[in-house]
Amino acid sequence: MKFFIDTANLDQIREAQALGVLDGVTTNPSLMAKEGITGHDNILKHYMDICAIVDGDVSAEVVSTDFDGMVKEGEALAELHEQIVVKVPMIKEGVKALKYFSDKGIRTNCTLVFSPGQALLAAKAGATYVSPFLGRLDDISTDGLNLISEIRLIYDNYAYETQILAASIRHTMHVIDCAKLGADVMTGPLSAIDGLLKHPLTDLGLEKFLADYNKGNS
Question: Which candidate in 37, 106, 170, 191 could, as Cys together with 101 as Cys, close a disulfide (CB 3.0–4.6 Å)?
């Protein structure tokens, strides 16, 4: 399973990269705004800054909702850096853009996916990644993990190469559950990744090892 961090915060990206398990970064306009990154040139520079920190894919989202606009934005983003993956919304014009980019050899991430049917369309259009938002489904009392399971079954049935990028991860158990279900990638906050480190028995065991060592070596 690949680990992506879902943020535009450079310090958090550096911290995740230093851990040695980071495979990429996902961003969106909301995450950019949260960091105070505004203006076209500043946003593009920020993508470049992120690419300079990580070795893997960096999803950069288009803001146009029409085919021509998405194509223009997406091509410019793809030319920005070889690590850039163009993030496209799951709408009719977005599916057309996914197919266009696929034919041009431009990698894509289909975002805002909430149903197996949407994921099927994204795969047929040639998306590199599909991003089902399980956390947002959980927020409205719908089983987000079941969506991951259904997409995995469909993709395995037809050997689609599109990778399932479990998005809107809220906490560490989401990561574990998605791994059990066979999601190819997870993207979430740094806290969800750090949470995998934690277990009280690890802390107690280390405390005892060090205490015993210090008894005979102090």
Answer: 106
For residue 93, CA distances in Å to 62, 103, 170 come to 12, 16, 29
pTM of this prediction exceeds 0.85? yes
The whole-angstrom separation of Cα 92 and Cα 65 is 9
Helix (H, G, I), strand (E, B) or coil at 3: strand
Catalytic residues: 87
Q: Of 17, 81, 70, 18, which Cα lies nearest the Cα of 46? A: 81
- Of 159, 163, 162, 149, the C-alpha closest to 116 is 149
Question: DSSP letters along 13-26, please?
Answer: HHHHHHHT---EEE
